[in-house]
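Minutes, project check-in
Item: structure for the 227-residue chain
Input as provided by the requester:
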Amino acid sequence: MLPASAATTVTTSFPDSLRGRFLVFDGPDGSGKSTQLRRFVAWCHERGVPVTEVREPGGTSIGEHIRNVLLDPANDSMAMRCEMLLYMASRAQLFEERIVPALAKGELVLADRFTSSTLAYQGTAGGLAFEDILAVGKVATGNRWPDLTVVFDVDEKVAASRLSPLLDRIEQRGAEFHRRVREGYLRQCRDYADRYRTVDASKDPDTVFDELLGVVGAFFSVTPRRA
């Protein structure tokens, strides 16, 4: 982790490099990524960076209907392949309706989860082949992938202690499933090291945010903008 002083130096120099970028915050349930996303959005607004914030599944009227189906504990008979395709359907609508227009306007798109979640939950933990998920993901997004995915890493015991007692259908799957989810994220960080970074999410929120700023700032200071 960068020391606080280094993170502060980075924050004053990289905001403009975020314009027109596609950034994803991801990680296991209970990792604190949504809290850090809200902080990062506020940080960007304070520095005049236009942000389109989206969440998955959902983010559009159609996507929110799909989200309700996916997370409803009553739908416990849903097959894993059906689950994956529903996530992708929500993603396809979100990409066309909100992400593409925002990037075209030069805004930062900041997503709470993306294909990285599908690879971890339905792939590594759920048993579906990465190749199948990536093939469907290519269709859903027109083969456009995030510039950077930040994985907030935390073990399943710490993550479980942070969850609301009112668990959705995915959160109810137990410690072993969520251990494999974490393994899925770490596998992606190894396999796609050119566009993934990790942040230790077990620490206090202020320390995590300092590390986040350092990681994102360092990445975009050396990564050329897409043509």
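Outcome recorded: Strands lie at 22-26, 51-55, 108-112, 148-153, 196-200.
No further action items on this chain.
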